[in-house]
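Researcher: Structure prediction, please.
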Amino acid sequence: MMAGFPQLRLRRLRQSETLRALVRENRIDVGDLIYPVFVVDGKGIRQEIDSMPGIFRYSPDQLSAEAEEVAKLKIPAVLLFGIPEHKDETGSSAYDPQGVVQKAIRAIKSAVPELLVVTDICLCEYTSHGHCGIVSNGVIDNDRTLPLLSSVALSHVEAGADIVAPSDMMDGRVKAIREALDDKGCQHIPILSYAAKYASAFYGPFREAAESAPQFGDRRSYQMDPPNVREALREVELDIAEGADIVMVKPALAYLDVIREVRNKFNHPLAAYNVSGEYAMVKAACQKGWLDERQVVLETLTAIKRAGADIVLTYHAKDAARWLQTV
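Model: Predicted structure follows.
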């Protein structure tokens, strides 16, 4: 039988930071992080986003310095989102070889070739209606959207992207993108699938940053219903079957249970997105002096790792990298 108090004293292993670190079960490492970056058409632009203090929109010509800073902090990857000058019904700027993300990829790869560039594959920032797919008679047309998503992915890879990350939540998008990449000899390009992406209220600041709010209705007909967990497992299973190399749960903090369920069932690399609303809440509270930013951010990232994520996409990545160097 296990000994009890006073022989058993769990506080023995908590007496110093060195001892606590020795028996620590979960750790956040800079190598686990991906830093999201917003790029906008134009030149000389470095514009802070009001609802996301410390996060900026950059024009492609401003990305070299940002990429160099990210790499110097030993963050292994960035995730690119584009805000185009031109929007239309089919999001044609998304797959334009001279589009804003394509320019951004080339700028980053020219400055820091070793930095991994992940690109968001979606149409919402590029469509005049703000939805993630083609609209037919007021309804999002799943199957007509798939060829366009494949074209976006191919154009990003041709520009130099290392990983493509479909976030649209159309059924069959992973299979369509995998087949399109393979047909062009790009079998080596991994797909990071937003496999369980919920229709969350925590995306509000992102929609300001990316200028991607829908012009009618909402995204609940294609993004997941927040109360559902078993459905998330089905989504992940299907994306893996279609060829996803990494799967993601988004958002992270309100969905830690989903991350854990996915980790328990699947052995695939698992990412979680610490989204804009989660970032904004921490920043607002810290600006009020109500929270210790460093401690809260590192605790949050550790919680996401503890839930089972291998990779964390977070706007806190640069700050966390600096703090982790001094822990």
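Model: The chain is about 35% helix and 20% strand.
Researcher: Thanks, that helps.
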